[in-house]
Write a structure and sequence with these properties.
33% of the residues lie in helices and 17% in strands. By secondary structure, the chain is an alpha/beta fold. The strands form two sheets. Strands 1, 2, 3, 6, 7, 9, 10, 11 and 12 form a nine-stranded mixed β-sheet that branches. Helix 1 (33-44) packs parallel to helix 2 (57-66) and helix 1 (33-44) crosses helix 9. It is globular, with a radius of gyration of 18 Å.
Length: 291
C-alpha cells in the first residue's frame, strides 16, 4: 500500500530563514480549499512557517496567508462560482481570461512579492521552453495569474517575451522551490488534479485535466524527493469547479493537518536539537494511513 504520509528530514545549506517549515502548495482549483484548512490548523497550533511556495491555486492561497489576509480570502472564496468569474470567450489561447483573479488584488496588502510578511516563491511554466519560472520578487498579482493559467481553460499570461501558464505543469507541488528559498523542513500538500468522475470524459476540460494528471504522475518521485513531509487531504470526490464545497475542502485540509501535527513537531524538534550543528544530516521514514 502506498503510504499517505511520508517524512524524511535533512539539513540543507541555504539562505537563513526564520526557524520553521517551508510549506509547498500545489494546484487543484476548488480542491485548493484544503490548503486553507492546513494553514488555519498550523496557525492555530502555532506551527512556524518560514516560507511558502505555490503552484496554481496554491499560489493564491499561500499569498493570502503570507500577506496576513487568510480570513478575508476564505470569505471571498466562499462567493466564487467559476462560471461567473472568467471572461468567457473563444480565443486561440484559452476559453477565459485570467483577469478574474484581479478581484483578489484588494485581498492583499502587499503589491510586490518581496513585500509579503513571509518569503514566498510562485511557480509558473514557460510554454516555449517547458521550464519552470520561479517568481521570488516582482508583481504579486501578475505572478499569481501566470501560475493559475491552466492550459486550454485560462489564457496564458505574457510577461516580457514569455508566455506563462499553470505552474502545476512543471511543479505539481513546488517542494523544490521551497527548498531553494532556504527551508530546512519542507511540507508539501497535494490535493491531486484528476476529476472526481470516472469513466469516459464528459467535456474538453476533463480531457485536459486527465491528460495533465497522467503527466504529473510521472513527476511524483521528483517533487517528493524534496519534501520531508507530504500531506494528502481527502478531497478526491470534489470536482475542479465545486467551489460551493469549499467548506468541505477546508475541513479535509484541517483534518490531515491535525493528523500530521506530531510529525511536524518532531521535525521541528530535530531542527532545534541540531541548530548548533550546521551540515548535520538525519533521515527517517514515517508511513501512516490517513484513511
Amino acid at each position: 500500500m502506498t503510504p499517505d504520509l511520508y517524512a524524511r528530514f535533512r539539513f540543507v545549506d541555504k539562505p537563513r530563514l526564520a526557524r520553521g517549515i517551508g510549506l509547498a502548495l500545489g494546484g487543484g482549483f476548488a480542491r485548493g480549499g484544503a490548503y486553507l484548512g492546513v494553514l488555519k490548523v498550523f496557525e492555530e497550533q502555532r506551527i512556524p512557517i518560514a516560507c511558502i511556495s505555490g503552484s496554481g491555486i496554491g499560489s493564491l492561497m499561500g499569498a493570502a496567508y503570507a500577506s496576513g489576509e487568510l480570513d478575508s480570502l476564505i470569505e471571498k472564496c466562499r462567493k466564487i462560482r467559476f462560471r461567473k468569474t472568467g471572461r468567457w470567450r473563444v480565443s486561440r489561447f484559452g476559453l477565459a481570461s485570467s483577469d478574474w483573479l484581479e478581484q483578489f488584488r484588494q485581498t492583499f496588502d502587499a503589491i510586490q512579492l518581496e513585500d509579503l510578511r513571509i518569503p514566498m516563491a510562485i511557480v509558473a511554466t514557460d510554454l516555449d521552453r517547458g521550464d519552470p519560472v520561479v517568481f521570488r520578487q516582482g508583481g504579486l498579482t501578475q505572478a499569481i495569474r501566470a501560475s493559475c493559467a491552466f492550459p486550454g481553460l485560462l489564457e496564458p499570461v505574457q510577461i516580457g517575451t514569455r508566455y506563462l501558464a499553470d505552474g502545476g505543469l512543471v511543479a505539481p507541488v513546488p517542494t523544490r522551490a521551497a527548498r531553494e528559498l532556504g527551508a530546512e523542513i519542507v511540507v508539501g500538500v497535494s490535493v491531486g488534479l484528476h476529476d472526481a468522475c470516472r469513466g469516459a470524459p464528459r467535456d474538453i476540460f476533463q480531457v485536459v485535466t486527465r491528460a495533465v494528471s497522467a503527466a504529473q504522475k510521472q513527476q511524483l518521485e521528483v517533487w517528493e524527493q524534496h519534501a520531508d513531509l507530504v500531506l494528502r487531504p481527502a478531497v478526491h470526490n470534489i470536482a475542479w469547479n465545486d467551489f460551493d464545497r469549499l467548506d468541505e475542502a477546508i475541513e479535509a485540509g484541517g483534518n490531515v493537518a491535525r493528523t500530521a501535527l506530531p510529525q511536524v513537531r518532531r521535525l521541528l524538534d530535530i531542527l532545534a536539537e541540531n541548530a548548533q550543528e550546521p551540515g548535520k544530516q538525519g533521515e527517517y521514514l514515517i508511513a501512516e494511513s490517513l484513511g
